[in-house]
Predict the 3D structure of the following.
Amino acid sequence: MPDTAVHVGSGKVRELFTLDDDRLLLVASDRISTFDVVLPTEIPDKGRVLTGLSAFWFARTEEIVPNHLLALRSDGRSTECRRLEMLPIECVVRGYLSGSGWKDYRATGAVCGHPLPDGLTESAELPTPIFTPSTKATTGHDQNIDRDQALELVDGELYDAAERASIALYRFAAAAARERGIIIADTKFEFGTDDQGTLVLADEALTPDSSRFWPADEYAPGGPQASFDKQFARDYCESIGWDKTYPGPELPDDVVAGTRARYVEAFERLTGIEFDAYCAEPDVVLR
Ligand code: PZK
């Protein structure tokens, strides 16, 4: 079988290749970014953790919305997927008030056109999860938009379908994660359409790179929360007085080991599958 992958794009920590007219290969590297800068030190197996987690969620949410996953490769970090027409918006769902949602709320009392109750504190749980789409910035930060702005970019029926699917996916995953001690504070989905015009979930989903994962036992609203996966790396970067501009610092071995352990712990808690079993046979997450 011919299998020449042509590189078609790079994300900060991932690569995208074309396999043929209908299929792409998404490869997750072990690179890590913090404070929006990719660090020079890799976290061994991070790409496998993210790929396995994403595939785990894809397998468990296909009844909510179809997804692009065709096959997991034996390296555990590469996903063969259906090539879609991508929607030009990021579909963000927030269950807690953090990041740009907290900033917007403090400035305006609303987030992406959702008016919120007065008196919420940073990291507070919202009364109900909200859909807060953003534009895909080519450089710099994505910009939050309201429904009317989104409707200039996406057909109304498709937008409504993406909103409904996003909220349902978040509710399903957040409830499952919460039972395993992880709060999914917010998450970003990317959707496309197939040649029938059907909405299809794409990219990676419900991973620590596309979501804010917080350890539930440390949750304390009223300020920022520790990140389940990146906190060691962030704390180290802060401790050495790095100014958060390129280039980032090399991470020492103990910070690398601690960060890797947190990624593996997130994988094992959320999937209930040993990470070594995943590495031996990635398809275990699909069953
Ligand atoms: C697609 N990206 C973002 C991800 C990168 C860039 N199923 C799909 N069909 C068509 N296009 C895409 C997908 C997916 N997923 C995703 N850009 C296009 C991206 C990873 C690395 F360089």
Summary: The two ends are 26 Å apart (CA to CA). Residues 9-11, 14-16, 24, 26, 68, 81-84, 86, 192, 202-203 surround PZK (CB under 6 Å).
